[in-house]
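Input chain follows. Return structure tokens only.
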Amino acid sequence: MDDQFTGAAREGVGRVQDAVGGLTGDSATQMKGKLNQAAGSAQETYGKLSEGVRDTLEGALETVRGEVHERLDTIETYVKDKPLPAVAIAAVAGIVLGLLLRGGSRTIYLRDPR
């Protein structure tokens, strides 16, 4: 929103400069006015686009949050309705995860000190 406001203000200043330069015959002031108009218009457009992207991302994030909460509610309901299968599934998942994360063998072999 800040870029939109700043861009619109800069574009307005550019229009005034352009008009003053045209009235006084000062081509440098008129050129500065045209440049400020173009820069202000670009900044205002950037502000509108960035706001649109932000709104779209916030909407997508809310959708994902809703889906996650739905899935968690489904899991919670399953665990409350069927506690023993849930514990069995958790145990198997824990064992598999432990085997995957343990890495190489950590067995220490001791030799006979003879």
